[in-house]
């Protein structure tokens, strides 16, 4: 990563952190994904249960493997063998002690913007787990709320549609979002989290490095 970009993100992260604190979030500035993983691991009690939502950033961090290695109680839908079991495990994850997720976009003023298919990720972010660890790269700080929602809808969601190999949605056929209502649509819930009711419940790992979609 170029030094000027790192400096720019570091300066923006320092300003954003103050705004996140005002919204009852707990920001932690991390130089890279490895540091974010380590900081989250330090904060997760080894006796607690951990659930997680689908996220490239979480996957790339390697935190799930490390939690398994240290014997953490994991609520893991990827270990299920049927859709029914997967659904039950996803419901259980909503009452885990800790939940790991990423954030699709964040405004310069500190609002969190997420777009979700099933809705489990935004549900857990909103209520349920006692602690949420949300990983987000400074690259995903897009500007004001309208711009951030637009970027998440026009950029992140179509990228996710390609990653998931959807077949019939406009974002796959034409490469741009067509605001679809199709069965395959992954943009069923757009959630804006403007403040946390419980102070410091949501730990935001602000990553200087460019990671995730
Ligand atoms: S709303 Fe439909 S077309 Fe737009 S990004 Fe989501 S899945 Fe693709």
Describe this structure in words.
The chain is α/β, with parallel strands linked by helices. The protein has one domain: Rossmann fold (3-Layer(aba) Sandwich), CATH 3.40.50.10420. The protein is 40% helix and 22% strand. The strands form two sheets. The protein has a six-stranded parallel beta sheet with strand order 1-10-7-4-2-3, sandwiched between helices. A four-stranded mixed beta sheet has the order 8-5-6-9, sandwiched between helices. It is globular, with a radius of gyration of 17 Å. The model has no long low-confidence stretch (mean pLDDT 96). The structure holds iron/sulfur cluster. The site of iron/sulfur cluster has 13 residues, from helix 7 and helix 8. Residues 16-207 form the LUD domain. This is Lactate utilization protein. It holds the Pfam family LUD_dom.
